[in-house]
From TrEMBL, chain A:
It is found in: Cell membrane; Membrane. GO terms for molecular function: proton-transporting ATP synthase activity, rotational mechanism. It comes from the Bacteria. InterPro entries: ATP_synth_F0_asu (IPR000568), ATP_synth_F0_asu_bact/mt (IPR045083), F0_ATP_A_sf (IPR035908). NCBIfam families: ATP_synt_6_or_A. The chain crosses the membrane at residues 143-163, 201-224, 230-252, 301-328, 335-357. Residues 1-33 form the signal peptide. Key component of the proton channel; it plays a direct role in the translocation of protons across the membrane. This is ATP synthase subunit a. The lineage of its organism: Bacteria, Pseudomonadati, Bacteroidota, Sphingobacteriia, Sphingobacteriales.
Automatic annotation (TrEMBL), chain B:
This is ATP synthase subunit b. It is a single-pass membrane protein. Its main location: membrane. It is found in: Cell membrane; Endomembrane system. GO terms for molecular function: proton-transporting ATP synthase activity, rotational mechanism; proton-transporting ATPase activity, rotational mechanism. F(1)F(0) ATP synthase produces ATP from ADP in the presence of a proton or sodium gradient. F-type ATPases consist of two structural domains, F(1) containing the extramembraneous catalytic core and F(0) containing the membrane proton channel, linked together by a central stalk and a peripheral stalk. During catalysis, ATP synthesis in the catalytic domain of F(1) is coupled via a rotary mechanism of the central stalk subunits to proton translocation. Component of the F(0) channel, it forms part of the peripheral stalk, linking F(1) to F(0). The b'-subunit is a diverged and duplicated form of b found in plants and photosynthetic bacteria. One of its GO terms (cellular component) is plasma membrane. NCBIfam families: ATP_synt_b. Residues 45-90 form a coiled coil. The keyword Zinc does not apply. The chain crosses the membrane at residues 12-31. F-type ATPases have 2 components, F(1) - the catalytic core - and F(0) - the membrane proton channel. F(1) has five subunits: alpha(3), beta(3), gamma(1), delta(1), epsilon(1). F(0) has four main subunits: a(1), b(2) and c(10-14). The alpha and beta chains form an alternating ring which encloses part of the gamma chain. F(1) is attached to F(0) by a central stalk formed by the gamma and epsilon chains, while a peripheral stalk is formed by the delta and b chains. Gene3D superfamilies: F1F0 ATP synthase subunit B, membrane domain.
């Protein structure tokens, strides 16, 4: 009796999830078509260009249809810092950001492939000045990341306060959903890999895990609050893996370093070669982390976008059901990948920390 | 290089800042209290289990103690009952014996009394018979010796018998 009602509720949940995905997929197609229609008419549909554009970062936030939210552009050049809205590019070109030149106080700026470039008065790119340009703009990815940061803070601070309020009681609501995940990170990621010293690394591992996971999930949402490809951006995965690199090597104990610099069982004349190999090892481990997360998430986005592009390649609505069916399948798979990649990144970080602080008894 | 694999300095900067802030805030306001609460609760559960285990053991000990006590009490009761039965049997036996003795004594007394009474009665009867016999003998003699001749005859007989 009880079991059957659980089963029913499970089936119901499954149906709901499927419904959500179907809506998402349909929505993404419509949003995509609205956007691409202007570009698509008349000229040939360039799948790779469109797909890469959607994966890349952007200086404006696409809300819906033709509505774009301009974002602040912050550039540091040899002549100093300059801040202006990305709408300024469009203002001076009568609506198209790509064509507009913003006449700043230091230089003239132009967006080329959504990258800020310094141009001369004729509109040609000034490569010498551009190489000295550092773009600290609040881009689509930065906004998306801040939203995820706020979301994470809201979720976990509220969960933490419910631990205080319901001290000694069974978890409830959001707390009940989050607790198994936290316990999972602790008992299945940190504890087996790091050992009894895991407590110290829990904040980092939990933050990495939930940061990657929630950004993977937000990345799957095709319209406004989502739509950014944050964890599929090499800069983000670079930062995360550099953090792993720093944490691992700062916590490396005597044994870890002595294994690298004075390997006991290795003849002294091999040591220089050994150092090179170990150095490569130190770098390659977080490097693999960086590439793995970047490639997995980006690949997922590329597949979904390509499947939707099929409709525009064939220029037929008849292909839409097939596209959507595949996209739903991919989205469900990506949902798994989102959690899996967060898990793998955290697991490997824990593993590297574990090997660096492992105690050897001879 | 492909822009896809070229990290933008801006995003690197903002990610570093955002992640650092997120890590600090979450560590202070979320992870620390949550982990503390989780550990606390785990310790509590472990304690509770240990205590429950101890209570169960104590319970088992008490039960076995009770059982032993009950067994002992039962044995004692059986012993007491047995003893009581023995005492009862003894008392009944003694009572029977004494009753028999008393009965025998009373029968003996009754017999003696009867014999006494019989002897008295017999003596009385004998006296009566003796006096009756004497009276009869007197009457007979009186009748017999109304005649003078007979008196003389007798005297003569008696004198004959007397041999000098």
């Amino acid at each position: 009796m009880y079991n059957s009602s659980i089963l029913k509720s499970k089936i119901f949940t499954l149906l709901r999830i499927c419904a959500v995905f179907l809506t998402l997929a349909a929505f993404s197609t419509s949003a995509f078509s609205q956007e691409e229609h202007a570009e698509g008419t008349g000229e040939k549909f360039e799948t790779s260009k469109v797909v890469l554009e959607h994966i890349a970062d952007s200086h404006s936030l696409h809300i819906i249809g033709h509505t774009h939210l301009p974002l602040p552009v912050i550039v540091y050049t040899s002549k100093g810092l300059e801040m202006f809205s990305s709408a300024k590019f469009a203002d001076e070109a009568g609506g198209h950001e790509e064509e507009g030149i913003y006449h700043g106080s230091n230089y003239n700026y132009k967006l080329v492939n959504d990258k800020v470039k310094i141009v001369n008065n004729a509109g040609e790119i000034d490569e010498a000045a551009t190489s000295g340009l550092y773009d600290f703009s609040i881009t689509k990815n930065v906004v998306s990341m801040w939203m995820s940061v706020i979301l994470l803070l809201i979720i976990f601070i509220s969960v933490s306060s419910s631990y205080k309020k319901r001290a000694g009681k069974a978890p409830k609501g959001l707390q009940a959903f989050v607790e198994p995940l936290i316990v999972f990170v602790r008992d299945d990621i940190a504890r087996p890999n790091i050992g009894y010293k895991h407590q110290r690394f829990m904040p980092l591992l939990l933050t990495v895990f939930f940061f990657i996971w929630i950004n993977n999930l937000i990345g799957l949402v095709p319209f406004f609050p989502g739509g950014a490809n944050l964890t599929g951006n090499i800069a983000v995965t670079l930062v995360l893996s550099v953090i792993t690199l720093i944490v691992v090597n700062l916590n490396g104990n005597k044994h870890y370093w002595s294994h690298i610099f004075i390997p006991a069982d290795v003849p002294v004349w091999i040591w220089p070669l050994w150092w090179v190999i170990e150095l490569v090892g130190i770098i390659s481990k977080p490097f693999a982390l960086m590439i793995r997360l970047f490639a997995n998430i980006t690949a997922g986005h590329i597949i979904v976008l390509s499947l939707i592009s099929l409709i525009f390649v064939f220029q037929s609505f008849a292909i839409a059901p097939v596209s959507i069916a595949f996209v739903v399948f991919m989205d469900v798979l990506e949902l798994l990948v989102a959690a899996l990649q967060a898990f793998i990144f955290t697991l490997l970080t824990a593993l590297f920390i574990g090997t660096a602080i492992e105690e050897h008894h001879h | 290089m492909n822009p896809l694999v070229t990290p933008d300095i801006g995003l690197v900067f903002w990610t570093t800042v955002s992640f650092a802030v997120l890590l600090l805030l979450l560590a202070k306001f979320a992870w620390k209290p949550i982990m503390a609460a989780l550990n606390e609760r785990e310790r509590f559960i472990e304690d509770s289990i240990t205590r429950a285990e101890a209570a169960k053991e104590e319970m088992a000990r008490l039960t076995s103690e009770n059982d032993a006590l009950l067994k002992r009490a039962r044995a004692e009761r059986d012993l007491i009952l047995q003893e009581a039965k023995k005492v009862k049997d003894q008392i009944v036996g003694e009572a029977k014996e004494s009753a028999q003795k008393e009965g025998a004594r009373m029968i003996e007394l009754a017999r003696i009394e009867i014999n006494n009474q019989k002897a008295i009665a017999m003596a009385d009867v004998k006296n009566q018979v003796a006096s009756l016999s004497l009276e009869i003998a007197e009457k007979v003699l009186r009748k017999q010796f109304e005649d003078q001749n007979q008196q003389d005859e007798l005297v003569a007989d008696l004198l004959k018998e007397v041999k000098l």
